[in-house]
Design a protein that fits this description.
Elements lengths: L3 E4 L2 H8 L8 E5 L10 E5 L2 E6 L5 E4 L10 E5 L4 E5 L9 E5 L1 H4 L3 H5 L14 E2 L2 H19 L6 H26 L1 H20 L2 H5 L4 H7 L4 H12 L3 H17 L6 H7 L5 H12 L3 H7 L1
Parallel strand pairs: 1-3
Antiparallel strand pairs: 2-8, 3-7, 4-6, 4-8, 5-7, 6-9
């Protein structure tokens, strides 16, 4: 079994890359001036990492999946994630690297927002693909961070550093919103396949085996991370993936309630509920009526 290299400190990654550690909690450097990562190696990250790839320079895998694009790609790695590096022979790294430890943002305004940047748990093949102008904005912010880290630390350093990281991440939120639009054909295909899977879920034995449908189940079927899948559905439909599934569940339930030969409890079990009372509460919350009341009214 291949060994996983655990990286808990920024300095550990810098040492592998042959880069000087100027700050214990953050590092920014031009990858073309650094060593390549060991080939066919896997790394467990204990900190945040953002990679800007400028040229095709080997293969990076996350979740056992590869990029669908190389030039001008941003990849986000969060603490606890594992990446696998499969380099081409004699390749030279390019682009930029930003690493920052969770301790850097603790107690700051950015620290309270980190959970909102869902792209840190996207798969690498759902990376952010930048235009030339977008790349320039990101590089400008990375240059500012590199400059600040190279200066003597004073009482302003932490605020300036975290503010620039926050600005960079907020730009990435904007760019991802743009990507959901420019990749509309791909997204529509995902939505169509999701609809098909959702219909099949209620018409096959899957529901009896797995119970109520979950966002994670459909994300896995579509080979997407749950966060990316949820964000995509939200952008395309205006509803969260969970809300979308919930609405479909209620629509199917309304049809089944018309079958007077079945009790409400039987219908609840057919829909994947373990307890009929849970079905009753969800149905009433959505329709304003209990299943029996809805059956009588119709």
């Amino acid at each position: 079994m291949e060994q996983i290299i655990k990286l808990e400190k920024i300095s550990q990654y810098n040492d592998i890359k042959g880069v000087e550690t100027q700050h214990p909690l953050i590092s920014v450097f031009d990858n073309s001036t650094a060593r390549a990562l060991p080939n066919y190696s896997r790394f467990h990250f204990g900190f945040y990492a953002i990679f800007l790839k400028e040229l095709h320079c080997g293969e990076l895998k996350y979740g056992r999946n590869s990029y669908d694009y190389d030039d001008g790609t941003l990849v986000f790695i969060g603490p606890g994630q594992v990446i696998e590096v499969n380099n081409e022979e004699n390749y030279q790294p390019t682009g930029w690297v930003l690493l920052f430890h969770p301790d850097l943002v603790k107690g700051t305004a950015l620290g309270k927002l980190m959970n909102q940047y869902s792209f840190f748990s996207y798969e690498s093949h759902e990376a952010l693909h930048l235009s030339i102008k977008e790349q320039e904005i990101i590089k400008d912010l990375l240059n500012k961070l590199e400059y600040e880290i190279s200066q003597a630390i004073d009482k302003h350093s932490k605020r300036i550093i975290t503010n620039n990281i926050e600005l960079l991440l907020n730009y990435c939120v904007r760019f991802y919103d743009r990507q959901f639009i420019t990749r509309e054909n791909i997204n529509n295909d995902v939505l169509s396949r999701f609809e098909h899977l959702l219909n099949d879920y209620f018409q096959t034995e899957v529901i009896q085996d797995l119970g109520l449908p979950s966002v994670g189940y459909f994300a896995d079927c579509l080979h997407l991370s749950a966060n990316y899948f949820g964000d995509l559905i939200k952008k395309e439909t205006g509803k969260s993936a969970q809300e979308y599934i919930h609405l479909k569940l209620i629509d199917v339930a309304k049809e089944k309630v018309f079958d007077t030969e079945k009790s409400v409890s039987q219908i609840a079990f057919e829909l994947g509920f373990k307890y009929p009372q849970h079905f009753n509460r969800m149905f009433k919350k959505s329709t304003g009526y209990t299943p029996n009341e809805y059956r009588s009214l119709n």
